[in-house]
Amino acid sequence: MIELNNVSKTYGTGRDAVHALKGVNLAIPKGAIHGVIGLSGAGKSTLIRCVNLLERPTQGTVTVDGQEITRLSNTALNQARHRIGMIFQHFNLLTTRNVFDNVALPLELMGQPRRDIRDRVSPLLEMVGLSDKADQFPAQLSGGQKQRVAIARALASNPRVLLCDEATSALDPQTTSSILELLRDINHKLGITILLITHEMEVVKSICHRVGLISNGELVEDAVVGDFFTAP
Ligand code: ADP
Ligand code: ADP
After folding, report:
1. Nearest C-alpha to atom 17 of ligand 1 is from which residue?
2. Are 28 and 35 a contacting pair, CB within 8 Å?
3. Which tens digits make up the pLDDT trace of 154-191?
4. Whole-number Å distance between alpha carbons of 211 and 41
5. Residue 38 beta carbon below 6 angstroms from any ligand 1 atom
6. Pair 125, 131: CB distance under 8 Å
7. 3-state secondary structure 34-94
């Protein structure tokens, strides 16, 4: 479902060059929840940004849902991104829009009619448990509720893949658990493949099937979660 083939990413050139990713190979099957852990600066964000092509790799290819996205034109890329949802540490909600309109945003950008948007947004809000908050603004919500809105928005375009960039790092442990529970549910019910990056071992232990360790731009280990944590 997600495949990285010898992916490298270098920022800058010459003396200022930063080799953020070095020949990363990764294959995540459909329906998996795959974690990538690593210290700050290891290259986790760069990895995830290469998968939805917020960055283009310097070298190598990325394939999502059978399509090699690395070679796409910018227009084709915008189409391909509809199949990739993403959530962030700081939620990235639009403060001037209420909950409903935040979730509706991707559908508006796709040019969907208002009626279809309403039919799509209401069940999404129900799924994330925020049906009664549709008219509230982000400033009126808790961190966990904001992330639920972001999850609903990420799912609006019916993606096959959900990318989570430190999605629980700004949340307290109890809220983290409830968000992880929701992600597990989404994976289970909708069959969405999840790639999540985090510096928190507990997150990986609690929901990932497999986990990779990234260090200095290299994916140095990739194993089933049980094996990973019981390894000598
Ligand atoms: P992580 O998410 O694991 O903290 P990043 O992928 O953000 O790691 O960063 C990997 C390396 O690339 C770091 O050395 C970081 O400073 C560098 N880096 C990240 N983004 C940029 C950028 N836009 N320009 C230059 N260097 C960058
Ligand atoms: P911008 O950086 O374009 O001004 P934001 O960072 O506020 O916009 O992004 C608005 C939201 O749109 C993001 O939080 C994210 O959920 C979604 N989004 C933006 N770019 C992408 C992308 N490449 N893939 C998936 N979702 C995206």
Report:
1. 20
2. no
3. 999 999 999 999 999 999 999 999 999 999 999 999 99
4. 18
5. yes
6. yes
7. EEEECCCCCCHHHHHHHHCCCCCCCEEEEEECCEEHHHCCHHHHHHHHCCEEEEECCCCCC
Q: What are phi and psi of 193, to 5 degrees?
A: -80, 135
> Which residues make beta-bridge pairs with 196?
35, 164
Q: For residue 229, how far is its CA from the centre of ligand 2 (angstroms)?
A: 34
Q: Which amino acid is at 229?
A: F
Host H or E run for residue 121: helix 114-127
Buried b (16+ CB within 10 A) or exposed e, 61-97: ebbbbeeebbebeeeeeeebbbbbbbbbbebebeeee
| Pocket test residue of 69, 83, 86 for ligand 2, highest count of atoms within 8 A of CB | 86
Ligand 2 in reach of 34 Cβ (< 6 A): no
Structure tokens at 155: 């799912």
Looking at this predicted complex, what is its ipTM? Answer: 0.68
Residue nearest to atom 9 of ligand 2 (CA): 92
The single-letter code of the amino acid at 23 is G
Query: What is the token pair recorded at 162?
Result: 């959900």
More confident residue, 78 or 168: 168
Other beta carbons within 10 Å of 142: 11
Q: 41 CB less than 6 Å from ligand 1?
A: yes
Token couple for 8: 């490298």
- Phi, psi angle pair for 195, to nearest 5°: -115, 120
Nearest of 58, 47, 42 to residue 163 by alpha carbon: 47
pTM: 0.86
